[in-house]
Design brief:
Elements (H helix, E strand, L loop, with lengths): L9 H10 L4 H19 L2 E4 L1 H17 L10 E5 L27 H8 L3 E6 L11 E2 L3 E2 L15 H8 L5 E6 L5 H7 L2 E4 L18 E6 L2 H11 L29 E4 L10 H16 L3 E4 L8 H11 L1 H5 L11 H9 L5 H21 L5 E5 L30 H5 L3 E8 L5 E7 L5 H14 L11
Parallel strand pairs: 2-3, 2-6, 9-10, 9-11
Antiparallel strand pairs: 1-3, 4-5, 6-8, 7-8, 7-12, 11-13, 12-13
Helix pairs in contact: 2-3, 9-12
């Protein structure tokens, strides 16, 4: 519970609205004031529409006064990442090559669902160009910064959403995850996010990366993510990859705890290097879950690092994006984006089929592994946040963001639900996190375990930037 309107959870806001002890207009005004204070230092927004937000707040206030809320999140300040279509606002995907002119008259499923449920839409959050990398900077909108230390990256590609989330610039945030883009920035900024089972949250228009891309919640609490997932997982016929709709409220059973839950703990998936300080914080989190009654045993799932086949698939699928840009405008693209796509430009069909074969085997291995375990627990990102305007941290000999995020992309390949759970701060005051991976379709287990940990060790948000 907090008296800071901008930092109240969506769950608390809806409760206060129902009791008529708080108004969406008051809250939205407080959140817009927070954006005025924090965003100049963090650059989390590429579109901010205060007039639209206040108009939506007034409409929500009238509905609550009548006792007729429109949906589960009526009046809750919400943002949309700038790779997700939102009617009335340009979706430029972080690229100068995408014209701002409309008509922008179509909502993606995620935007449509939050709008239908009465959310107060604030604007769109920043992304690297087409969400191609694990940090958030691009030629169009510049550099987004980490609220724990503005010299550092918040991660990406949903870095604008997580920076906004951590500082109270909205209670609910829609992000996307094609290789870790919800989970990586959540880990670097100390907030919660979940990539649900592939197809749980409908996606439209179709993405070149197909069913490895997920849209999903980024919030300051597990309960708020369960709430937002309930909204986002409503069906939408435009996504033919979507799984059958499961009409449930993901908050039900959230506080059932982990007693008796079987959790496999993998320190490194058998191949990753983890900074000692991050490893120690993860170990402490493992002990917390054991103390809460979970049966935790060390066990690797037993697969080799799929980075190279994932990278071949990822950048080959993004080739049409660059090829659609006229030759005389290629210099407006992020040079790193062009470089990596060009590196895989000559990938042949046999290589892509081989990558898909590895993906299919990986999915089989994980399904069989999680047939014996309720959850897999790993570190989320093996290093703390590093300097801005760099794809990789200096001095570590890395070339690609995937090298410092070995725990994320395997589960985009397999489609299993996976969540980031903040688990403390390093000696430099930077967040660390664990990852919880569940069997396909069992987001409830992931959310339960995350909630149990959060209850024992509530997440800590960063100090606000000085004005």
């Amino acid at each position: 519970m907090t008296d800071d309107l901008a930092m109240m959870t969506a769950t608390e806001l809806v409760t206060r609205y129902r009791r008529k002890t708080l108004s969406p207009v008051e809250v939205t005004a407080a959140v817009l004031a927070r954006i005025d204070r924090c965003d100049p230092a963090l650059n989390a927004f590429c579109v901010l529409d205060g007039d639209f937000a206040m108009a939506g707040a007034r409409e929500s206030e009238a509905r609550w006064r009548r006792g007729e809320p429109q949906g589960l999140i009526d009046g809750v300040p919400t943002t949309i990442k700038d790779v997700v279509l939102a009617k009335g606002w340009p979706t430029r995907r972080g690229s100068k090559t995408t014209p701002a002119e409309g008509p922008w008259d179509v909502d993606a499923p995620a935007s449509a669902r939050v709008r239908e449920h009465g959310a107060v839409l604030l604007g769109k959050t920043t992304t690297p160009e087409y969400g191609w990398k694990g940090v958030t900077d691009c030629p169009l909108t510049g550099t987004t910064r980490n609220p724990w230390n503005a010299d550092l990256t918040p991660g990406g590609s949903s870095g604008g959403a997580t920076a906004a989330c951590a500082t109270g610039m909205g209670a609910l945030h829609v992000g996307s995850d094609g290789g870790g883009s919800i989970r990586m920035p959540c880990a670097f900024t100390g907030v919660f996010g979940i990539k649900a089972t592939s197809g749980r949250v409908p996606v439209y228009p179709p993405n070149y990366l197909a069913d490895t891309v997920h849209h999903g919640p980024i919030t300051r609490t597990v309960t708020d993510s369960a709430l937002l997932l309930t909204v986002l997982s409503k069906p939408d016929a435009r996504d033919w990859f979507a799984i059958p709709y499961e009409p449930r409220d993901w908050r039900v059973g959230l506080d059932d705890g982990v007693r008796g839950m079987r959790i496999a703990y993998s320190r490194n998936l058998g191949y990753a290097d983890v900074d000692p300080e991050i490893a120690d914080l993860v170990e402490a989190a493992v002990q917390v879950l054991a103390d809460l009654g979970a049966v935790v045993e060390e066990q690797d799932p037993g697969f080799e690092d799929p980075m190279e086949p994932f990278r071949a698939n990822f950048f080959s699928c993004l080739r049409p994006v660059i090829d659609a840009v006229p030759e005389d405008r290629r210099d407006e693209l992020d040079p790193g984006f062009v470089r990596w796509v060009d590196a895989y430009r000559d990938t042949d069909a046999d290589s892509l089929l081989a990558a898909q074969g590895i993906r299919m085997n990986l999915g089989h291995v994980m399904n069989m592994f999680l047939d014996s375990w309720d959850l897999l627990l790993t570190p989320q990102v093996p290093i703390p946040a590093f300097e801005t305007n760099a794809e990789v941290p200096a001095g570590r000999g890395m070339k690609s963001w995937m090298e410092w995020s070995p725990f994320t992309y395997p589960f985009n390949f397999t489609g299993h639900p996976a969540a980031t759970v903040p688990c403390g701060l390093t000696s430099d005051g930077l967040p660390a996190a664990i990852q919880l991976v569940g069997p396909r379709y069992r987001e409830d287990l992931v959310l339960r375990a995350a909630r149990a940990y959060e209850t024992a060790h509530p997440f800590v948000m960063p100090p606000l930037p000085s004005v």
